[in-house]
């Protein structure tokens, strides 16, 4: 028969479980509240534009513009919902990463090519500097998503005449480090610690473009690769995002 010690152990485990359940419930409530909040604003716009067309207050040309706004807001909502689904699948471990040998040099050069046009259009200098690196094991499409989001952010926030760099190095034989740096306005210290949280936008008034999910998704992908991502920033000088990924020195790269 179980003695008092076992009963005590059981009670402790039970209390821990109850605490975990309470915590999960709270997280779920926060999540639902965040999502509802995010969806409310595009829905309010859609409703307003549609109402103006129904009422006949918007005529011909104006009605067309309202219809176009409805389409824009709907696209924004669809993107948000898609990113959100992806984020929650990643967070709950439902998405498994492909494990293949990835040549980061190829991948980063490809990212450079993709973003070069946008950089030129904004008169931003894009520089890529890659040390010889061992391959990493991972999911090339997901890793591309990480660097694309970092470059998208860097270009979004850097003013004309600025500089964005992709630097990859091997500080230790067992991990590679990729830095994406910019000469944008930087992120204030108290906000920097929140940039990887879902829906976080340092300046919510700065346009409707982003859902605030890119970095949260990037972080989940990097963690799923056994790596780490962090941000450093100096106000008025720029921001640096650092991605560290375990290297596979035993696999030979071409
Ligand atoms: N390089 C940067 N310079 C300045 N601020 C940045 C930079 N990168 C990210 N941020 C801040 O961090 C916030 C979160 O970035 P994140 O990529 O998660 O979302 P987003 O770019 O707003 O939207 P999404 O990536 O979902 O389209 C941004 O809204 C911005 O305020
Ligand atoms: Mg982003």
Could you outline the blueprint of secondary structure elements for this entry?
Elements lengths: L3 H52 L4 H32 L8 E3 L1 H18 L3 E6 L5 E3 L1 H18 L5 E10 L2 E8 L6 H4 L21 H11 L3 E7 L3 E9 L8
Parallel strand pairs: 2-4
Antiparallel strand pairs: 1-3, 4-5, 5-7, 6-7
Task: Give a brief outline of the structure.
With about 250 residues, this protein is of the alpha+beta class. About 55% of the residues lie in helices and about 20% in strands.
Main β-sheet, in a few words? 5 strands, mixed
General form: flat
Question: pLDDT average, as an integer?
Answer: 90
Report the top-level CATH class of the largest domain: Alpha Beta
CATH superfamily of the largest domain: Histidine kinase-like ATPase, C-terminal domain
Describe the structure.
The protein contains six helices and seven strands. With 254 residues, the chain is an alpha+beta fold. It folds into two domains: 4-91, Signal transduction histidine kinase, dimerisation/phosphotransfer (DHp) domain (Helix Hairpins, Orthogonal Bundle); 100-246, Heat Shock Protein 90 (2-Layer Sandwich). The strands form two sheets. Strands 2-4-5-7-6 form a five-stranded mixed beta sheet. Strands 1-3 form a two-stranded antiparallel sheet. A hairpin with a 3-residue loop joins β6 and β7. α1 runs antiparallel to α2 (60-91), α2 runs parallel beside α6 (214-224) and α3 (104-121) packs parallel to α4 (140-157). The radius of gyration is 23 Å and the shape is flat. Adenosine-5'-triphosphate (ATP) binds next to α4 and α6.
């Amino acid at each position: 028969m179980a003695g008092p010690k076992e009963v005590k152990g059981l009670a402790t485990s039970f209390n821990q479980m109850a605490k975990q359940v309470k915590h999960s419930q709270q997280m779920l409530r926060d999540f639902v509240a965040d999502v509802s909040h995010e969806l409310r604003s595009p829905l309010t716009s859609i409703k307003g534009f549609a109402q103006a067309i129904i009422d006949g207050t918007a005529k011909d040309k104006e009605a067309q513009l309202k219809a176009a706004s409805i389409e824009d807001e709907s696209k924004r909502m669809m993107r948000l919902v898609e990113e959100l689904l992806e984020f929650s699948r990643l967070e709950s471990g439902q998405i498994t990463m492909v494990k293949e040998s990835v040549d980061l040099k190829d991948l980063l050069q490809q990212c450079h090519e993709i973003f070069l046009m946008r950089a030129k259009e904004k008169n931003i200098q894009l520089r890529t500097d890659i040390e010889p690196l061992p391959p990493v094991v991972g999911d090339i499409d997901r890793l591309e998503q990480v660097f694309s989001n970092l470059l998208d952010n860097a270009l979004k926030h850097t003013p004309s005449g600025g500089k964005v760099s992709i630097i990859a190095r091997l500080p230790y034989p067992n991990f590679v480090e990729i830095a994406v740096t910019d000469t944008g306005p930087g992120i204030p210290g108290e906000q920097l610690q929140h940039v990887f949280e879902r829906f976080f936008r340092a300046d919510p008034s700065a346009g409707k473009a982003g859902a605030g999910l890119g970095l949260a998704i990037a972080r989940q992908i990097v963690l799923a690769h056994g790596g780490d991502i962090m941000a450093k920033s100096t106000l008025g000088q720029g921001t640096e995002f650092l991605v560290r990924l375990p290297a596979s020195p035993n696999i030979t790269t071409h």
